[in-house]
Design a protein that fits this description.
The protein is an alpha/beta fold. The chain is 40% helix and 19% strand. The two termini are 20 Å apart. The structure holds pyridoxal-5'-phosphate (PLP).
């Protein structure tokens, strides 16, 4: 299946229920252009050096999304152009994003990353920490907090994934009632985006289903 076909299949499935972020980590500029020529304008990356290089070498109407763990000392490389940071998970990072956004004379949209999975390696805040983290974020004038992001446990157990997505939907609804800026729930990847959409996702991050298997 070609990249083009996969994108139109996914778009047909999700209709206008969710925004598709094409996860282009490890993919070449040529592969991204093939997706772009099919009308895909939003791409997600998890490494700063890679996103910067692709930003420099690809059309400027692409929206770049940072979906991976972000180190503070690298924020300065993406703050000029990044559309949405999905992985805001600690105050020290918020401080750095805010500082760089101010320097660049802009605000940066961010999602708070929540840890819902049992996997040891997943980043994010514990759900119990969300309230106080959200309150602390208010001091950062150049950060717009517009929603939540999470990654499900890496498992074949669909009911576990569904439980995790339901928890996210509940948290998201609670946040929306206290803050009308909360608009985005970023959950769902290649193997579980339909389940995610059924549980309130309105932004999915899909890589291998579009571009094929990755080598890591
Ligand atoms: C790699 C990645 C994805 C996409 O994963 P696929 O299974 O290839 O769709 C989504 N979100 C994050 C945070 C990722 O790192």
């Amino acid at each position: 299946m070609s990249i083009k076909n996969q994108i139109s299949i996914i778009n047909n499935e999700i209709k206008d229920k969710a925004d598709l972020i094409a996860v282009s980590k490890t993919r070449s500029v040529e592969q991204i252009i093939e997706a772009y020529n099919q009308g895909q304008k939003k791409f997600g990356e998890n490494r700063v050096h890679e996103i910067v290089e692709k930003y420099n070498n690809l059309p400027k109407d692409i929206e770049w999304h940072m979906i991976g763990h972000l180190q503070k000392n690298k924020v300065k490389h993406i703050s000029k152009f990044i559309s949405l940071i999905h992985s805001l998970d600690r105050l020290s990072l918020a401080k750095e994003i805010d500082k760089n956004a101010r320097k660049d004379n802009r605000s940066i949209d961010c999602l708070i990353q929540i840890k819902i999975s049992n996997d040891e390696s997943k980043y994010g805040l514990n759900p119990e920490q969300l309230d106080s983290f959200y309150t602390d974020l208010k001091e950062f004038e150049n950060i717009n907090t517009i929603g939540l992001m999470a990654m499900a446990t890496y498992t074949k157990d669909q009911s576990l994934i569904a439980d995790e997505f339901k928890k996210m939907e509940k948290l998201f609804k609670e946040m929306k009632t206290i803050d009308s800026n909360f608009k985005i729930l970023s959950i769902g990847m290649s193997d579980d985006y339909q389940l995610a959409i059924n549980n309130g996702s309105n932004m999915i991050r899909v890589g291998s289903k579009i571009f094929g298997q990755r080598n890591y």
